[in-house]
Amino acid sequence: MASKEPDHEHREDDDAPAADDEDTGAQVAPIVRLEEVAVTTGEEEEDAILDLKSKLYRFDKDGNQWKERGAGTVKLLKHKKTGKVRLVMRQSKTLKICANHYVLATMTVQEHAGNDKSCLWHASDFADDELKDELFCIRFASVESKLQKLHGNVPRSC
Fold first, then answer.
1. 4 in a domain, yes or no?
2. Boundaries of each RanBD1 domain copy (predicted)?
3. C-alpha to C-alpha distance for 132 and 129, rounded to whole angstroms
């Protein structure tokens, strides 16, 4: 009579998954080769005099309401040669520019009525590749961060 025993012996470690730190010796070649690319931000000739997280709003005249322009890092950048200062703000995750304009001596920055963590100002903005006059409001996390960072960096007091 024929025996019903398996042709090979069953071992316990055959069924166990490979440990995370175990080197399997397998080598995987990348499907696509990525070359390192030099990225220019347009900020190479400027020094940051302010770099702070905040939320930016613009006033929509048609809807008569504030609309969020973006949340991210606002920078005041001073050009190394000309000395001109511009405000640039990029959204956190996408790094899309949501504000880009020069800070002029004729601008007035004032505290938003009823909110001491916010400031208002008018500017001709170029964030959407079109020069438009906008009313902006920027809100900081706390009054302390607003005062510490803005004092002395903006032509008019906030």
1. no
2. 27-144
3. 9
Residue 120, SS3 per DSSP: strand
Q: Domain count of the chain?
A: 1
Residue 80 covered by a domain: yes
Range of the domain at 147: 46-151
Residues 103-130 have pLDDT tens digits of: 998 988 888 887 888 899 999 887 778 8
CATH code, 68: 2.30.29.30
Q: Is 126 helix (H, G, I), strand (E, B) or coil?
A: coil
Q: Judge if pTM exceeds 0.70.
A: no
How many helices (H) and strands (E) the chain has is answered by 1, 7
Query: Within 13 Å and on the Cβ side, how many CA atoms surround 60?
Result: 8
Q: What is the mean pLDDT of residues 33-61?
A: 89
**Is residue 9 a part of any domain in this protein?**
no
Closest of 69, 52, 63, 81 to residue 153, by C-alpha: 52
**Residue 96 forms part of a structural domain:** yes
